[in-house]
Specification:
Largest sheet: 5 strands, parallel
Number of domains: 4
Distance between the termini: 41 Å
Radius of gyration: 20 Å
Helix content: 25-40%
Oligomer: single chain
Number of helices: 13
Strand content: 25-35%
Structural class: alpha+beta
Shape: globular
CATH superfamily of the largest domain: ATP-grasp fold, B domain
CATH architecture of the largest domain: 2-Layer Sandwich
CATH topology of the largest domain: D-amino Acid Aminotransferase, Chain A, domain 1
CATH class of the largest domain: Alpha Beta
Number of strands: 22
Strand order of the largest sheet: 3-2-1-4-5
Length: 420
């Protein structure tokens, strides 16, 4: 089977890497891909937003299956377009992808499904938000979220009312996230630890993947701005089988009754003193969660995609390696704000040759025999180990081989589970 993977990040590199191990895959294309995917697949210079171009390419190449990595083309209806043309594609319809594409709609579905989540208020104008915040306690912490797709950056965590006012200003007046900030939600800030639980879905059937824990903030000790994710680990020792079971019955089953779809349901959770609460839904593989989950999955990934599309998901049992996986994200200096592109990355070969190390490219491109930076999150250095301590040490050993001007990363990824 010829396979097309759409996207250019670390998640897509991990998907390409896993699919390349399938005996049923004859050729992989990645559109547009990056400096890493080009080593396993044929990169095709078609933008993820060019749905007509992607469709024409899939028809011309007789692609047997298309997998969509990022959220934007899903929200824009790529699955609908491919399905109408008679092509097999793994991903939700545009109607289902609204669960991720609109924070307000996502919250409305959570309310209908009885999903545990933070209380919130939606606002369609900055003045209304300012007036409402003026009635709230001065020292109460909030989270302010752009309603639309902001590539994982439209969530501002606020310690008090003053910071919440600044967040509204940033999103709705300064328009830092463009039209994604036409509407916002302000919700109560919850205390606890975050965990990501992904499920491959087929209508109302689903397979839950092993959980992962992500580090969203740019700074060590969870300080600074939110990012798309600075690292993570899997499995998640704190997230017990009982908590997984709770999430299945209180979140996944009710949500799929409201919005049945084929694709991935990514449940972003925070485990509070009262139990798990849903922070957000995404309808695609997480990034960088995919980079720690897929290396531990022992099944043929293509079998899972086929079963989801064909409605035979319940016949598959996911098999997991007992090993631990840790990913450290290497970012360009200045990320998640302004950053430079085009710096040559040194040390990739040395890092990749270390035992049990996988270097997934996120924001890179190949040019004239060099690998250059081409994004905010540039590389995802994943390592496997029999213990978390071993996986952590291997990952940072590889990180220390890699360099480019301004490279930055967190040094505390998975530190909380080192002794597990």
């Amino acid at each position: 089977m010829k396979v097309l993977v759409i996207g250019s990040g670390g998640r897509e590199h991990a998907i390409v890497w896993k699919l390349a191990q399938s005996p049923r895959v004859t050729q992989i294309f990645c559109a547009p891909g990056n400096g890493g995917t080009g080593q396993l697949a044929e990169n095709v210079q078609i933008a993820v937003s060019d749905i007509d171009g992607l469709l024409a390419f899939a028809q011309e190449q007789q692609i047997g299956l298309t997998i969509v990595g990022p959220e934007a083309p899903l929200i824009d209806g790529i699955t609908d377009a491919f399905t109408q043309a008679g092509l097999r594609i793994f991903g939700p319809t545009a109607a289902a992808a609204r669960l991720e594409g609109s924070k307000i709609y996502g919250k409305e579905i959570m309310q209908r499904a009885g999903t545990p989540t933070a209380p919130y208020v939606a606002f369609y104008s900055a003045n209304d938000a300012f007036a409402w915040l003026a009635t709230q306690p001065e020292n109460k912490p909030w989270v302010v979220k752009a309603d639309g797709n902001a590539a994982g950056k439209g969530v501002l965590i606020c310690d008090d009312r003053s910071e919440a006012i600044d967040a509204v200003q940033t999103i709705m007046i300064a328009r830092e996230f463009g039209t994604a900030g036409d509407r916002i939600i302000i919700e109560e800030r919850l205390d606890g630890y975050e965990v990501s639980l992904l499920a491959i879905c087929s209508g109302t059937d689903f397979l839950v993947l092993d959980p992962a824990q992500d580090y969203k903030r740019i700074g060590e000790a969870d300080t600074g701005l939110n990012t798309g994710g600075m690292g993570n680990y899997s499995p998640a020792p704190d997230f017990s089988p009982e908590l997984i079971d709770f999430t299945i019955h209180q979140v996944i089953i009710p949500t799929l009754k409201e919005v049945p779809f084929t694709g991935v349901l990514f449940v972003g959770l925070i485990v509070t003193a009262e139990g798990p609460m849903v922070l957000e839904f995404n309808l695609r593989f997480g990034d960088p969660e995919t980079q720690v989950v897929l290396p531990r999955l022992e099944n043929d990934l293509l079998d899972l995609f086929d079963a989801a599309i064909d409605g035979t998901l319940t016949t598959i049992t996911p098999c997991w390696s007992p090993r631990k996986a840790v990913t450290v994200v290497l970012a360009a200096g200045g990320y998640p704000g302004q950053y430079a592109n085009g710096d040559e990355i040194q040390g990739l070969d040395e890092a990749s040759k270390l035992p049990d190390v996988l270097v997934f490219h996120a924001g890179s491109k190949a040019k004239d025999g060099q690998i250059l930076t081409n994004g905010g999150r540039v590389l995802n250095v994943t390592a496997l180990g029999d213990t978390f301590a071993q996986a952590i040490d291997r990952s940072y050993q590889a990180v220390n081989k890699i360099s480019w001007p301004g490279m930055t990363y967190r040094r505390d990824i998975a530190a909380r589970v080192r002794e597990h």
